[in-house]
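Continued from yesterday's entry.
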Amino acid sequence: MISVQDIRSLTEFQRHTKAHLKRLKATRRPTVLTVNGKAELIVQDAAAFEEMLDAIRGIQRGLEAMKEGTGKPFRVALDNIRAKQRIPRRPR
């Protein structure tokens, strides 16, 4: 979700580019840039963008596996992760 503090005008971004780049790297959150009060661009740190793409690719692989019938149901996968990481089950 985009926070109000992550919305900036393109003009302000251009005037204070170094400060904005520093903030982008520190927070790893995207910034919405506006032109005449309307959202026009989203700027994001490259490493954070790559992480987001990796997550999307993982979701796509999971959806394809489920379509092909080779995926695991969520509960089975979660139980496997819990067992591997030694995380106890919470009582229901």
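--- second protein ---
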Amino acid sequence: MTMRRHDKEIVSREEIDAVIREADVCRLGLAFNNEPYVVPISFGYDGAAIYIHTAPKGRKIEFFAANTRVCFELEAHVEIRADAEKACDWTFTFESVVGHGSITELTGEDDKIDGLNHIMRHYSGREWAFASKDLATTRVWRIEIESVTGKRSAKKSPGS
């Protein structure tokens, strides 16, 4: 996929990874029977895949079963840039990442613990222990990243 505004494109994978690591929320795009569905989720990241968790049943799981192809979006450093004189000069700065991949469920206890710890490290900076009863009622998923693009909208300088 080609980005129209090449001047805003983030081409460095290291910079794209930094945006992902600094994001708080991942928005997951799904499709089933020509119906789109976008949902915000907590996530973890290991440089090649995104990890998420779900309840045992739900709408996301119905979509996963029908179509394992997913799209995801994350952003960081979002700031509204207001203009006191002209409404059309309002804008915001941001860094964003959009990617595509395939989602698979992690079913082994060790794999589930690893996936959950990717999520927990993202938010808490450390690993956690998980009780078997909690693992039994939690589904853990891995999104293998197949493609990713980044975009940056820099701050406007005064008078521009």
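The chain has a mean pLDDT of 92. The first helix runs from residue 13 to 22. Will compare against the first tomorrow.
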